[in-house]
Write a structure and sequence with these properties.
InterPro entries: NAD(P)-bd_dom_sf, Sc_DH/Rdtase_CS, SDR_fam. This protein is globular. By secondary structure, it is of the alpha/beta class.
């Protein structure tokens, strides 16, 4: 039996849940973090149903609250858990012209998608570096690579995650640390994201990738210590487009994906 522990935020559904499933399959203790306890309990029920005997810990914390990262770290420390794998999956979006969208929603988005990610990374990475073992998976997006009109703040948070991750990856190499950090950049995926972001009827939402496919491919590359995971051909094409097209054209292309589908 594996005696390692993985902590996954945003673990009650979508890619976060599917990543928790990958860890459970590999006999990790899984610490599931999300806002709603009832949703965490349902996620735990499904995991127990598939993987009997898996050790599951539920931590209901709202990462839009700045104090949550410290509270999560204190809770896992108090319980004596060494976090061998940290997955910063929690995140959400909002769709619409920036002049029309809600300011508090976007401030909460910055807190969840960027600030809490940095905070949790700081707390657990220090421990990992001190013992020279551990791995961290950061959730980016294909939106990390280009400006995204009608999801301006969301795309900016994902660009931040990309820049932050790549910088810390370089620092870990300079420190000659065995700790690895991977950024997973999925394409539009079949999760609750589009509902929360009020984007169910956009072109981007019409043919999403499977959350399980994204998680399993990302998990495999994460375990190999890859710097970046671009699951599916669509994600790879988006990335390569960002290397050759100017930002103005990328913004135009992204904008068309966030307009209503003509189906």
């Amino acid at each position: 039996m594996n005696d390692q522990t993985a902590l996954i935020t945003g673990a009650s559904s979508g890619i976060g849940f599917e990543l928790a499933r990958c860890f459970a399959r590999d006999d990790y203790r899984v610490v599931l973090v999300a806002r709603h306890l009832d949703e965490l309990k349902e996620a735990a029920r499904l995991l127990h149903q598939e993987f009997r005997g898996v050790d599951i810990v539920l931590l209901p914390f709202d990462l839009s609250r700045p104090e949550s990262a410290d509270q999560i770290y204190a809770e896992t420390t108090q319980r004596g858990f060494q976090i061998d794998a940290l997955v910063n999956d929690a995140g959400f979006g909002e769709t619409g012209y920036f002049t029309d969208t809600d300011m508090q929603t976007e401030l909460d988005m910055i807190q969840v998608n960027a600030a809490s990610l940095v905070h949790l990374t700081k707390l657990y990475l220090r421990d990992m570096v001190a013992r020279n073992s551990g791995r961290i998976l950061q959730l980016g997006s294909i939106a990390s690579f280009s400006p995204s009109p009608c999801q301006a703040v969301y795309a900016a948070t994902k660009a931040f995650v990309l820049s932050f991750t790549e910088a810390v990856q370089h620092e870990l190499k300079q420190q000659k640390s065995a700790v690895t950090m991977t950024i997973l950049c999925p394409p539009p995926t079949d999760t609750n994201f589009f509902h929360v972001a009020h984007a169910e009827n956009t072109r981007a939402a019409q043919h999403p990738a499977s959350a399980r496919t994204i998680a399993e491919e990302g998990y495999d590359e994460f375990m190999e210590g890859a710097a970046r995971s671009l699951p599916t051909i669509g994600a790879k094409l988006n990335f390569f487009s960002s290397l050759v097209l100017p930002d103005s054209m990328l913004a135009t292309l992204m904008n068309t994906q966030l307009h209503a589908s003509q189906k």
